[in-house]
Amino acid sequence: MGIDEWGGGQHEQSDVLVVTTNDVPGYRVERVIGEVFGLTVRSRHVGSQIGAGLKSLIGGELKGLTKTLVQTRNQAMERLVEQARARGANAVLMFRFDVTEAADVGTEVCAYGTAVVIAPLA
């Protein structure tokens, strides 16, 4: 089973299917392994903070911060998939992201879901 679930070709093909739904049409859950997550914290460098501050005065997208957040989310998701694979899962159901500020020095991104083993319906 191969996937490229996170739009725009951001991730290479994986043997772990990641979905935001409770189930996968055409498949049954054979075993629930449990919660898995991928966590990363990224700090912002001074240059991007100054640029973001100036940009916020005139409006518009903060492209540097957007790029950093996308990279951070990708890393968190990759860690989630690694953890699911290490625990014997071939799918993660109910996938979500949680994003919080980490002590005013960066952004914490946690990707989480339920690791399962799925099999095609007969």
UniProtKB/TrEMBL annotation:
Annotated signal peptide: none
One Pfam family, short name: YbjQ_1
InterPro entries: UPF0145_dom_sf, UPF0145_YbjQ-like
Family the UniProt entry places it in: Belongs to the UPF0145 family.
Protein name (Swiss-Prot/TrEMBL): UPF0145 protein AC230_13075
